Amino acid sequence: MLEIDFPTFRSRINIHSDRDLTVEIVAGDNMGFCDMVEYEAVEVRDGLVVLSWREHIGSTIVHVLDLISGKAHTAVTPVKGDFMRLTGRITMRPERCVSADRRRPGTAAIELFPGFASGRLGAGNYEIFFRIGGSGPPLLLLHGYPETHVCWHKIAPGLAARFTVVVADLPGYGESRGPEWEAAYAKRAMAEAFVGVMNQLGYPRFSIAGHDRGGRVAYRLALDCPDRVERLATLSILPTFAMWQRLKDNADAMRAFRWYFLAQPSPFPEDMIEAFAIPYLHATLSGWTADKSLAAFAPDALAAYETAFATRAVIAGSCADYRTGWTKDREDDEDDLAAGRVIACPTLALWGRREFPDVERFLAGWRPIAPHAEGHAMDCGHFLPEEEPDKTAEALSAFLVRDSHLAIS
């Protein structure tokens, strides 16, 4: 049994099995509420457990339980109403919250990529975690913030019917690691690392699709190594230089405040996020979707993101990624603009209409470095591979084989 005292109520959780638990409100507001649910639990490290479930009324509950200090940080995402963050005191601890098979970080992600093998490769100053599956022309898929390679789980297995698909964690995210110095998280350095990874896998030339921060690595790779990239697809981004120009507008800056917050000097943003990592993660994920909920994220995928984002190394790596967005990445883009360098390969830009409603304005942001880029909006928010997986897969597949010697009959 687990009991948590919150400021206005007390919650009691009875864990019946590795699958089911009962939650009751035994004192204070909503006393008498009771629900039996299926839950997920991940032990991030000794004494730190992420416990989550979806109530029958539709609300999503996530507890980050520090069993050593006795603190509980809780996020509630209701079907209707405002996202809530709560802090409580654990007054009764269970003998266990997590069975042995749930204690290995990343295990939930394995079944999301059936038929894929996994591995790690050294590339320069990085260790890159990847999965590979399928057959056909090589396609590298890179994720964005605040996720991992798992964001592709809804479409990678289908793409693997036509392509050899490589999904990888960016340095500093998921299970990939990089050095502590900040310059290592510039997109030029990351792009060089992925050229090295693909070389080691036997693919000196390949197509690449990147979502969010992965899209920035992808277009930098296409600019710096044009002989390596067959086709480029970016999801949910404007080029870095164009984004900073856009953020001069106060309304855009408010919506994209993380560009400023995460780029602040270390360790300020790292400390702020680490203190409330899982609620921050959930607020970011839900806030960027069209329906402002976590409904688009499969439970196993969400568990993988929680496991990764609960570690200081990932928080620090993602902040370093954004800091270089303000410094080296912006400067590299400006140098390319001044020199007239453009992306030579066919380029597709996809984005969510709820995030960027003005089609012409969006495509105009790409034209200075990708004058022949094509693209269209989808009726969703930021996370295309999870909010609109079928349409995203269809658009990528059609683009990657069109008028190309890589097309498969």
Secondary structure elements and their pairing?
Layout: E1 2-5, E2 9-15, E3 20-28, E4 34-45, E5 48-54, E6 60-66, E7 71-77, E8 84-92, H1 107-110, E9 117-123, E10 126-134, E11 138-142, H2 156-159, E12 164-168, H3 187-200, E13 206-211, H4 213-224, E14 229-235, H5 240-246, H6 250-255, H7 258-261, H8 268-274, H9 277-287, H10 299-309, H11 312-326, H12 328-339, E15 347-352, H13 359-366, E16 374-378, H14 384-387, H15 389-401
Parallel strand pairs: 11-12, 11-13, 13-14, 14-15, 15-16
Antiparallel strand pairs: 1-2, 1-8, 2-3, 3-4, 4-5, 5-6, 6-7, 7-8, 9-10, 10-12
Helix pairs in contact: 3-4, 8-11
Domains (count):
2
- How many separate helices? 15
Strand content: 25-35%
What class, by secondary structure content? alpha/beta
Name of the CATH homologous superfamily of the largest domain: Alpha/Beta hydrolase fold, catalytic domain
